[in-house]
Amino acid sequence: MMFVEAKGARIPAIGLGTWELRGRACARIVEQAVRLGYRHIDTAQMYDNEREVGEGLRASGVKRDQIFLTTKIWPSHFAPHDLERSAKEGLVRLRLTEVDLLLLHWPNPHIPLSETLGALARVKRQGLARHIGVSNFTVALIEEAVASCPEPLVCDQVEYHPYLDQARVMEASARHGMALVAYNPLAKGRIKNDRALLRIGDRYRKTAAQIGLRWLVQQGVAAIPRTSKLERLSENIEIFDFELSDEDMQEISAMGTAGGRLTDAGFAPKWD
Fold first, then answer.
1. Which one from 47, 160, 163, 183 is the annotated catalytic residue?
2. 47 catalytic, yes or no?
3. Distance CA 239, CA 214 (A)
4. pLDDT band at 230 (very low <50, low <70, confident <90, very high)
5. What is the Cα Rg of the chain in Å?
6. What is the DSSP string of the chain?
7. pLDDT at position 264 over 90
8. Which strands, in side-by-side order, build the sheet including 68-73?
9. Cα(first)–Cα(last) distance of the chain, in Å?
10. Helices 208-218 and 195-204: crossing angle, nearest 10°?
11. Using an 8 Å Cβ cutoff, are 120 and 152 in contact?
């Protein structure tokens, strides 16, 4: 397993996203993922599955200190006291004493960012989160967050895949020593049948999805593909036994455009 390192955090380069996974199926997928070698699991308050994620982690039999667990606070809970209470409630659901990474799930323009980040920093100082960060933050929001947060921010979790150009956000994150974590790294399944990726995959005896994930981690980005299929779990993590050439990396990067975004909520910020 490769790691992405930032501000003292060692984030496993491939993780399991759990958006839309629910109930016993969620617990089972998490358990199987950890048994297969996944050491990075991503959940969120809004996913309504923290309890099942915790069950899956315990059922795997792998020691807690071997797992990097991320969860996120929803923007409606960004008022300082509400954020601290939400962080504690999440730990109760997970049945854990701390998470490895606690993120602000989306920006909230209605609450001063400095107040929200002050509360996030307090949660870290209380020992409820080992690291803190943000998600869906633009370049301008990254700059504002870094300037106003009293504790280091280790990452920005954003949509990123071969069809979406994220060069500006990557550059801003790197400038501040922050990692980038990619959600929707398989473009909601679209890259599985991409002709260019299939052609590149033939050379390496890998699937189009594996090529897309390898392209991300080779840039120093962590990726958290979501799947509910056990066979896909194995496929998504088997990307550490080959390396894409510079030419292949450039060809895949050239596929990205500013209009390639697939996740764009009504409350989203003005994207870069």
1. 47
2. yes
3. 6
4. confident
5. 18
6. --EEEETTEEEESB-EE-TT--HHHHHHHHHHHHHHT--EEE--GGGT-HHHHHHHHHHH---GGG-EEEEEE-GGG-SHHHHHHHHHHHHHHHT-S-EEEEEE-S--TTS-HHHHHHHHHHHHHTTSEEEEEEES--HHHHHHHHHH-SS-EEEEEEE--TTB--HHHHHHHHHTT-EEEEESTTGGGGGGG-HHHHHHHHHHT--HHHHHHHHHHHTT-EE--B-S-HHHHHHHH--SS----HHHHHHHHTT-BTT------TT-----
7. no
8. 16-17, 40-42, 68-73, 99-104, 129-135, 153-159, 179-183, 222-223
9. 31
10. 80
11. no
Domains in the chain, ordered, with CATH? Answer: 3-191+219-232 (3.20.20.100)
The pLDDT value given to residue 266: 85
d(CA 272, CA 269): 9
For 20, counting Cβ atoms within 10 Å of its Cβ (0-12 exposed, 13-18 middle, 19+ buried), the class is: exposed
What is the distance between the alpha carbons of residues 271 and 188, in angstroms, rounded to a whole number?
19
